[in-house]
Amino acid sequence: MKKRILLVAVLQLFMVFNSCSSDSGSEDPVTTDDLQKGEIKADFIARYSPDDFVINNDDTAFFVGQSSNDKDYIIKFQKIDKNGNLTLLKGITNINLLSSRLAVTPTGDFLIIAYNDESEGDKIFRFENNYTDINLFYIMKPISSPFASKIKLTAITENNDNTYFVFDQGNRHIKRFVPELNTDVFVAGSGKNAIVDGAGLDAGFGSVSKIISHNNALYLIDNLYSENTLASSNLRKLEYVNNQWKVSTLLSTTVTNDAFRDIIFDSKNDLLVLKGKGIYKLNLLDNTLSLFKDGEIKVAAFGKNSSTNITVDFSSLKSFKIKNNDLYLVTTTDFIKISDFQTKFAAVEK
């Protein structure tokens, strides 16, 4: 009798262990059961707020930003894969590279400009030797005029042809950098602090903070300041027409809290604009906006050792990107990825 009782107990214990083992191997680390009501599952929530980021073909995000809690590095260049695994690629001690901007080359190299620095503002740097070094890649040609200001680059984008468009804040010029020829050429800009549509030297710029390239045209966020006060925020287009570069203004606002903060094209070729209370879609036929996403969402991500739950307010987003159906958000404190975001948004809105 004692042997039978012992055998039954052993069998029951075996069944319990076998069930636990089976469950742990088959369950997704994050299931809908882990989420509170109204929460959306995020692929990752990194407690870091990038100054700029790009996404490569295998959905790895590369980003640069200030490191406030690191004693060794002022700035960090890092990558985070689609599963949220974070890797430090390069710790940067050069304070001149604060608030940097990134561009990725067709070969997968990364270029960086010193957004805030006067002494390094005319230079384009490149990460080399498997990201261990930041070396000088190009120095913009000085302007041959006694009235020219020192070149200060504040925006850069790759044009899908191994050439790069940059904005020179010092002289309010758009220029094109051609690495194969080791040169840069003037595109547009009168040099005056003014929002003026036109071609070449007749076009006027304020302060361009963002340039993106799409279908042989450039789209810019151009803010005009008067005595350090925002006078207007403008969404503008630059395209090559009749053998000249023509600048036109698509949208403009004089309301400070409605200024344009970021622009992207999504996988459907829709131009999405971050401004005011959230993200809008711009109809390029008539330059009208329709709301894409506003309000707040509750987001949760679960790691092996910890979980994170935050609320994202779209009115305070710093920047965003969409690749395929994955949404990347940057807040003042966090970097977030939500895959299949449209399906998840629709589920919580029911």
TrEMBL record:
**Would the keyword Signal be found if you checked this record's keyword annotation?**
yes
SUPFAM superfamilies with a match to the protein in the record: NHL repeat
Signal in keyword set: yes
Q: Which InterPro entries match?
A: 6-blade_b-propeller_TolB-like
Q: What keyword terms does UniProt attach to this protein?
A: Signal
What is this protein's name?
A: Quinoprotein amine dehydrogenase
Cleaved signal peptide residues: 1-21
